[in-house]
Design goal:
This protein is mostly helical. The protein has 14 helices and eight strands. The strands form three sheets. Strands 1-2-3 form a three-stranded antiparallel sheet, covered by helices on one side. Helix 6 crosses helix 10 and helix 7 packs parallel to helix 11. It starts with a strand and ends in a 9-residue tail after the last helix. The model has no long low-confidence stretch (mean pLDDT 85).
């Protein structure tokens, strides 16, 4: 039992059957507060204050099933969040299986984190077989799985199934998200020459507008206004992500061609179901990178390339953040990476500026002699 003073009166706090109770005793005496706390605990035991029996604790497998059903409905406006949870659930189910939810401890979650951090990436082959690659899982992948697990336990707590979240005390892995891969213009030409028609249009729009790949995939006909020269992004996790993008002439050409040929709601429809957008073009991207002979890069690095070029052209960070769909300027620093050549030229400009300022200051300090007529 614990009592403490706050605002001139005593409060009491205790845990009963996995539930934490904290209330004001309404008195200024510590002794009376302890008596009130004891009386309230007795009332709980007798069921006089509406205490209900906790629901049966499900297995992890059943809890994940219920969580994903809830997630699908809860994130209907942001389906990618639900899809991310579905992907993360696979590794979690392989580890926790049918373990009762209340038997999953912080130590067990730490064990999952350590195990996953040491595993290698896999690729899906024919059927359900998976083949290991020579690359370790990225910390971001493990962290997304931990985030899914944390969300599952929070859902179970709100459903009165359990009382605490064992993930809350687990430290997520450090991530190195600072990507520095930026395409040169020569690499861009080689890459686009080797790209499939679909990939070429997707890549061109990213390089011309800085859009996220998924934003390109989900472009719908009503979102494009070629006459006014802009494209609307109606959905996104943040208000900043829902924005209007001004189009370059090259971007307008791509969209105009797509609009003239496409009879589906999406400009980049899925081959198996034209009423859905293409899910991704990663395989085509990997083939184009190999065929072009350029250094490896992710499709997302095309967005980094656009942001870097935009920053080097003189666009200020506030404007650049808005164009990228970020609500904070700090996020832009993850995308804009001025090249060494650009930094060298900037240093030359600074050197020239300093030299001119020194000359100007020297001239101001020199004594001036008036014409005395001698």
């Amino acid at each position: 039992m614990s009592v403490f003073k706050r605002g001139g009166v005593y409060w009491y706090e205790f845990v009963y059957r996995g539930t934490r109770y904290r209330q004001s005793a309404g008195v200024g005496s510590q002794r009376e507060a302890r008596l009130i706390e004891a009386a309230y605990r007795t009332a709980l035991a007798k069921g006089d204050v509406g205490i209900t029996e906790r629901k049966p604790v499900p297995t992890f497998r059943n809890a994940m099933r219920d969580f994903l059903r809830w997630s699908e409905e809860q994130h209907r406006a942001h389906p990618r969040t639900h899809e991310r949870y579905k992907v993360s659930s696979a590794a979690l189910l392989r580890h926790f299986r049918d373990l009762p939810l209340d038997k999953i401890t912080t130590e067990e979650v730490e064990r999952f984190k350590t195990t996953r951090a040491g595993e290698f990436k896999t690729i899906r082959g024919d059927g359900k077989s998976r083949t290991k690659t020579g690359k370790k899982l990225r910390p971001a992948t493990v962290n997304r799985e931990l985030a899914c697990l944390k969300a599952l336990f929070n859902f179970a707590i709100k459903s009165d199934v359990i009382a605490k979240n064992p993930v809350s005390r687990v430290k997520f892995l450090a991530e190195n998200n600072q990507q520095t891969r930026v395409l040169s213009y020569q690499e861009q030409q080689r890459y686009l020459r080797c790209a499939s028609p679909l990939l070429r249009d997707v890549a061109a729009l990213i390089l011309e507008t800085g859009m996220r790949p998924e934003e390109v995939y989900t472009i719908e006909r009503p979102n494009v206004d070629l006459l006014r020269g802009w494209l609307q992004i109606p959905q996104g996790k943040t208000l900043a992500a829902r924005r209007r993008i001004n189009l370059t002439s090259a971007a307008r050409d791509v969209l105009s061609r797509r609009l003239s040929r496409c009879e589906t709601p999406y400009l980049f429809p899925c081959e198996s179901d034209p009423n859905r957008p293409v899910p991704k073009v990663n395989n085509a991207h990997d083939r184009a990178v190999r065929a072009s002979g350029i250094a490896p890069l992710r499709l997302y690095d095309l967005r980094h390339t656009w942001a870097t070029r935009a920053a080097m052209s003189g666009i200020d960070l506030v404007t650049l953040a808005a164009m990228l769909g970020h609500s904070r300027i700090q996020m832009v620093l993850r995308y804009a990476h001025p090249t060494q050549d650009h930094q060298a030229k900037a240093m030359e400009r600074l050197e020239a500026f300093n030299a001119m300022q020194q000359i100007s200051e020297f001239d101001r300090d020199q004594p001036r002699f008036e014409n005395s007529g001698v």
